[in-house]
Amino acid sequence: MASHDFHALTLAEVAPLTDEAVTLAFDLPQDLSEDFRFTPGQYLTLRADIDGQEVRRSYSICSPVGSAQLRVGIKRLDGGRFSTFANSLKAGDQIEVMPPQGRFTAPLGGANHYLLLAAGSGITPMMSIAASVLENEPDSQVTLLFGNRSTASIMFREQLEDLKDRYMTRFTVMHVLARERQELELFNGRLNGDKLTTLKERGLLELSDYSAAYICGPAAMIEECADWLAGQGMDKAKIKTELFTPAPGSAAKAAAVAVAVDPNAEATAIQVMIDGSTRLFDQRPGENYLDAAKRNGVSVPYSCANGMCATCRCQVVEGEAEMKQNFSLEDWEVDSGFLLSCQLVPKSKNLVLDYDAL
Ligand code: FES
Fold first, then answer.
1. Could you give the CA distance from residue 97 to residue 95 in angstroms, rounded to a whole number?
2. What percent of the chain has pLDDT over 70?
3. Where are the beta strands (DSSP E) in 178-290?
4. Atom of ligand 1 nearest to the CA of 327
5. Is residue 310 in contact with ligand 1, taking CB distance under 6 Å?
6. Which residue among 50, 212, 228, 275 is the one 20 to 30 A from 95 at the CA level?
7. What is the three-class DSSP state of 192?
8. What share of residues in the chain are helix, strand, coil (percent, to 5)?
9. Residue 298 and residue 108: Cα distance in Å, rounded?
10. Is 339's C-beta closer than 6 angstroms to any atom of ligand 1?
11. Beta carbons within 8 Å of 261's beta carbon, 6+ residues apart
């Protein structure tokens, strides 16, 4: 399992993708190549000091496995502190980077047909999955449905064309545009359940063919497309989703729980096992878990601090705890005692948490 330590990596290149997106390419020193080995679909957590405040964000790796450089694609968001900062970076700058994490992965091997559904910057992990599969699984096929506002906003447009030219018989790309009229009415509009129904009726989606489906984009699009695939009979275990930003009102996988603070309650003694070491600290009643770790000088992994990315995933080995919200863990993980520690609310006086559990 990759360690959770940050490493200072040097930017080899900052290249524009669209008017509002760039790719950052990191040089990988030889001695870190093992730490930064990844499975297609994983992400990197970047950390920077912006205006005197530590800011962390996770970005999916878009380069294929085996490439000399690690690349991530970053779209500038309105008011996005890290994405605005990232768009001002230049080659030679250094950024702190945590080794690859994430379970939205396509392990390579075999003959498969992958269905990839992406919207906007949700294309970034798909670039790595598509290129890695096409390069390393000669008998596999990839079908990508990619939703965007307009042609100008399509990230990786040229790279997708290149992939199509290289793997003409094994790679299919369909662009769905919401605010630009394409000649074929079929490809106008939003990528959602209705669009999938139409594509299926026209023979462009063959559900019995797909070994797995990967969906990445805004919450509403993910929920609609995943529900549609499950409704068509696709095994839920074959539908993988990656959420970047929850839409207002999107359903967390566990309902948010209110943090009831008992003024007489004692602090919880917490033991964490991480990267083979053990650390101890206390969490006061009502205190946020990440704040408690920081107050005690204990470094625990996290990125979004919002229940989405699962960088903070760990298993409760002793004691009891709840999550305030969960947009990321599957039912089997929750049933097995895994939780998102950034959302942790202790329910016992002692807790033992294992960040190395798989
Ligand atoms: S830090 Fe992202 S889910 Fe906890």
1. 6
2. 94
3. 212-217, 239-243, 268-274, 277-283
4. 3
5. yes
6. 275
7. coil
8. 25, 35, 40
9. 36
10. no
11. 285, 286
Q: Determine the residue of 342, 344, 345, 353 to mutate for testing ligand 1's pocket, defined as the one with the most ligand atoms within 8 A of the Cβ atom.
A: 342
| Domains identified in the chain and CATH numbers | 7-100 (2.40.30.10), 113-243 (3.40.50.80), 268-354 (3.10.20.30)
Atom nearest to 305 CA in ligand 1: 1
Q: Report in angstroms the alpha-carbon separations of 8 from 12, 30, 102.
A: 13, 14, 20
What is the whole-number distance in angstroms between the Cα of residue 243 and the centre of ligand 1? 12
Supply 309's token pair: 């990315």
Residue type, 168: M
CB of 314 within 6 A of ligand 1: the answer is no
Q: Work out which ligand 1 atom sits closest to the CA atom of 303.
A: 1
Q: How far is CA 304 from the centre of its chain?
A: 11
Mean pLDDT of 155-169: 96
> CA 61 to CA 38: how far, in whole Å?
9
Predicted pLDDT at 263: 59
Report how far apart, in Å, the C-alpha atoms of 161 and of each of 25, 166, 174, 334 are: 20, 9, 11, 41
| CA 310–ligand 1 middle distance (angstroms) | 5
At 267-324, the pLDDT tens digits run 999 999 998 999 999 999 999 999 999 999 999 999 999 998 999 999 999 999 999 9
Cα–Cα distance, 216 to 233 (Å, whole number): 20
> Could you tell me if the CB of 98 is within 6 A of ligand 1?
no
The Å distance, Cα 132 to ligand 1 centre, comes to 27
What pLDDT was estimated at residue 4?
86
Q: Average of pLDDT values for 11-18?
A: 94
* pLDDT exceeds cutoff 60 at 252: no
Q: Span 82-90, mean pLDDT?
A: 91
